[in-house]
Write a structure and sequence with these properties.
315 residues; alpha/beta
Length: 315
Amino acid sequence: MKRTFISAHGANFLRHFSSTSLRHEVQDPRVSTLGRTIKDEYATIRSKYRTPKNPIVLAHGLLGFDELHLAGKLLPGVHYWRGITEALMANGIEVITASVPASASIEERAEKLGKDIKQKARGKNVNVVAHSMGGLDARHMISRLKPPNVSVLSLTTIASPHHGSSFADYVFNQIGPEKLPKVYRALHALKFETGAFSQLTRKYMQETFNPATPDLEGVKYFSYGAAATPALWSAFRQSHRIVLEQEGPNDGLVSVQSSQWGKYKGTLMDVSHLDLINWTNRLRWLVWEMVGNKRNFNAIAFYLDIADMLAEEGF
């Protein structure tokens, strides 16, 4: 493994994309069920991180993308991995960003993920780091598809719904079986794929996907979860409440319980589903700090630490 020291210029570059320092901590009464709780370990960027020998593949979640251009090439694109790709590369890591169909089935997304890795890794061993549904795509690719010329050493999943989502259950129950075909037809008319949605239910994941998708021997599996309490104005307030009632602590969409697969590395406290990919609401942080609190999570420090962990594992 190689240890890389970040230059002053590199450190400034990383901080440019980061959210910094500690945030007020709210202790969940069920904290004993969360495994190792991570409260401020990734508050700031360290001066040095080890660099894994093999490339890291970033696999996005539901409705995700690599880079989205809302106004063609006239304006800069919006990146799913906001500043994370650049930060890893600044630390000497070869990074591959996959782009799979936003809301297609796990099978379709996994096939595209395999093709992306085959094309971009050019036969190199890789470490997959996946957010949300991307972890399910990666598991299917590794276990079921086993594409030729794709060699995965490890899979690290971040808030992936390995055991399904009670919010997905709620949405399907609210729509009802009679209206569901009409909803799907409307979405298809808008060129919107729908294969992913029913596969995120707890019934499908626990009774169909998981039994058919065992871990592949020789691949190391790591996972992280997150728990947060959304603000009153948050778009995730209702989904958080629904998941909290059914599954317990969650990040607004995915529960800690559902996030656990392989070696569970811990629960990021007071971190939301979007904080995990550095889509932090900066106005929220500004208000938070104005009342005397400090942030406890820096997404870039988190991903650099994942890379450091992979280097320590010899990958």
